[in-house]
Design brief:
single chain; 246 residues; alpha+beta; 15% strand
Length: 246
């Protein structure tokens, strides 16, 4: 097992048309909308860019035994087995890379000394024999981790680490941009829902000569009894002039 600091791992990206590849990667990630589609592109393109046999990427504030909600991989069935092994072992290269903010390389799982329980299970349950985990770092914070897998021991050399680091750097920027876009969309939706609910409350206040709190309670009761979201009930009131019967 070898550990590298990403801030010092510049390395030689030999074998790549660096300018073209990096430009293409940056453009594709910038043009991909949403966090999950961005993660899909990161995992898929890592297989060819590093290269490796399988790739997985996950984004979270912290990692637990459950798979991160924001995650993608090139082989979901295989990654389920990897996740089970990591959960049972209680440690893994990916978790170590995330927590330390450093790249972790396991050259040969059959002779791994640090993540012994994890390595033993992967050798027994999967074709994976080498692992490379790179943290996604943005503004001194770790957003997630990109983990690459190979069926061949010692397949990740210094050039592989350099390529993976390049991918991770662009991935971190793209993930943060996608998360910001998602938050902006959610905020806009929340504002629109708030305006809709406020307008519906105004209609009920005027129509029934009641207080705003009472009008809101009418909306909430209609929402609960019809099993529909409050904003949907409010929208119906604005469009039809009537609440669903409670």
């Amino acid at each position: 097992m070898t550990t590298h600091r990403p801030d010092t791992m510049v390395g030689d990206v030999s074998g790549l048309d660096a300018a073209n590849v990096v430009t293409t990667l940056a453009r594709v990630l910038a043009e991909t909308p949403g966090v999950l589609p961005t993660l899909h592109e990161i995992a898929t393109r890592s297989v060819d860019l590093v290269p490796c046999d399988w790739a997985a990427v996950a984004v979270a504030e912290r990692f637990t035994r459950r798979r991160a909600r924001l995650a993608d991989s090139t082989d979901d069935a295989l990654m389920e087995r990897v996740a089970v092994a990591a959960a049972e072992a209680g440690d893994s290269p990916g978790l170590a890379a995330f927590e330390a903010g450093e790249t972790v390389r396991c050259d040969d799982l059959a002779h791994e000394c640090r993540f012994t329980a994890y390595a033993t299970q992967l050798v027994a349950r999967t074709p994976i024999r080498a692992v490379l985990s790179v943290p996604l770092r943005f503004h001194d914070a770790t957003l997630g981790v990109l983990t690459l897998y190979s069926a061949t021991p010692h397949s990740f050399d210094e050039s592989s680490v350099a390529r993976a680091t390049l991918v991770a750097e662009h991935a971190a920027i793209a993930v943060e941009a996608a998360r910001s876009d998602d938050r902006a969309v959610q905020l806009q939706a929340a504002l629109e829902h708030s305006r809709t609910i406020g307008a519906a409350i105004g209609i009920l206040v005027e129509r029934h000569r009641i207080l705003p709190d009472e009008a809101f309670q009418m909306l909430r009761e209609a929402s609960q009894h019809t099993n529909r979201k409050l904003a949907q009930v409010a929208t119906d009131l604005l469009e039809t002039g009537a609440l669903p019967e409670v």
